[in-house]
From TrEMBL:
Source taxon at top rank: Bacteria
InterPro entries xref list: SWEET_rpt (IPR004316)
Keyword Transmembrane: yes
Residue ranges of the TM segments: 23-44, 83-104
Keywords, in A-Z order: Membrane, Transmembrane, Transmembrane helix
The name this protein goes by in its record: SemiSWEET family transporter
Annotated source species: Weissella sagaensis
Length: 105
């Protein structure tokens, strides 16, 4: 092994596990907030659809299917991954509403 890899590996071993858990918790909370904000941005798409300027179906459909898969994954894990579930449920809801408003305007 090269010395750079050894040094990197040594540094990771010495990180306090409590600190690592705190960092993971903060990252999890930030990622959850960002994911929800990403889905909330679909409000503009919904308004566009309702104004008679429908968006293409492929993007909201893909987003919704992705959210369904990640929600299912987080829900079905041995220990539920609540940040993953919570952050993707809005994607399912906004996806459904966006798709419905494509056809109802």
């Amino acid at each position: 092994m090269n010395s750079e890899t050894d040094k990197s590996s040594d540094r990771r071993r010495f990180i306090d596990s409590n600190r690592r858990e705190k960092v993971v918790k903060v990252i999890s909370e930030l990622a959850t907030i960002m994911c929800v904000l990403m889905y909330v941005s679909y409000i503009a798409e919904i308004k566009s659809n309702l104004a008679g300027n429908p968006v293409p179906l492929s993007q909201p459909l893909t987003m919704m299917l992705d959210a369904i898969l990640w929600t299912g994954y987080g829900w079905l894990k041995q220990y539920r991954d609540w940040p993953l579930v919570i952050s993707n449920v809005p994607g399912i809801l906004f996806g459904i509403v966006t798709i419905l408003t494509i056809y109802v305007h």
